[in-house]
Design a protein that fits this description.
Layout: H1 24-27, E1 38-39, E2 45-46, H2 49-56
Antiparallel strand pairs: 1-2
Pfam families: GST_N_2
Keywords: Transferase
Protein name: Glutathione S-transferase family protein
């Protein structure tokens, strides 16, 4: 999906096996510790894959 569009994205890796998605830093973006999360230009976050895909279309 992202590969089909020309987008500038900053990617942040989270080690799920180490529980990095449950860190306070990540929970500030995704209170339910969901992955992936997309930060929008207005500072809001999308944490549902389908919502992210719809937004990027």
């Amino acid at each position: 999906m992202v590969g089909a569009a020309v987008l500038a994205l900053d990617e942040v890796d989270r080690d799920l096996l180490e529980g990095e998605h449950r860190s306070s830093d990540h929970r500030a973006r995704s209170p339910l510790a969901k992955v992936p999360v997309l930060e929008l230009d207005d500072g809001r976050y999308l944490g549902e894959t389908r919502a992210i895909c719809s937004y990027l279309e």
